[in-house]
Amino acid sequence: MFKHLYPIAVESGIDAEHFWDFDLAELMTQISANNKRKLEDMRTKAYMDHRMSELIAFAVNDPAKMPKVEEAYPFVKETEVQAQQSLTEEEPDWKRDQALFMQQAQRIKQFNKDKNGGEN
Fold first, then answer.
1. What is the rounded CA–CA span in Å between residue 50 and residue 17?
2. Is pTM, for the whole model, over 0.85?
3. What distance in Å separates the CA atoms of residue 76 and residue 15, rounded to the nearest whole number?
4. Mean predicted confidence (pLDDT) in 86-103
């Protein structure tokens, strides 16, 4: 039964070595997921191709009205903003090292205090 599914599964993107590890339900789920992903990729490519043709029309006919990259492709600006936010939110290494050092120093201080019977 699985022999006739093998070429379909491999064409769908399932690794030939892992094909034999799947049961029928897993194979069908993976094939379906791979096909949906390919369809979504084709839709995205079609949208980008159409958008590029619009920009070419602007460039040829009226370059002064050609929109900026961020206007033509809004996701470009969103990814730039997200990248900048992640850089500003990320704590520098030296800050993390400093916090770790302070925690260790506090533990040593507490250990020495406990060792001396609470004196210090």
1. 38
2. no
3. 33
4. 75
Determine what percent of the chain is predicted with pLDDT higher than 70.
Answer: 84
Q: How confident is the model over 55-68, as a mean pLDDT?
A: 88
Q: Which CB contacts under 8 angstroms, 24+ apart, belong to 33-42?
A: 38/13
Task: Report the C-alpha gap between 76 and 68 in whole angstroms.
Answer: 11
**Residue 89 half-sphere exposure, CB side, CA atoms within 13 Å?**
6
Question: In angstroms, rounded to a whole number, what is the distance separating the alpha carbons of residues 70 and 81?
Answer: 11
Mean pLDDT (the chain, rounded): 82
Distance of CA 21 to the CA centre of its chain: 27
Q: Per-residue b/e over 26-57, b at no fewer than 16 CB within 10 Å?
A: ebeebbeeeeeeeeeeeeeeeeeeeeeeeeee
CA 90, 94, 99 angle in degrees (round to 5)? Answer: 90
Neighbours of 86 (CB within 10 A): 9
Q: Where are the alpha helices (DSSP H) in 13-92?
A: 24-61, 69-72, 74-89
- Alpha carbon distance 89, 98 (integer Å): 17
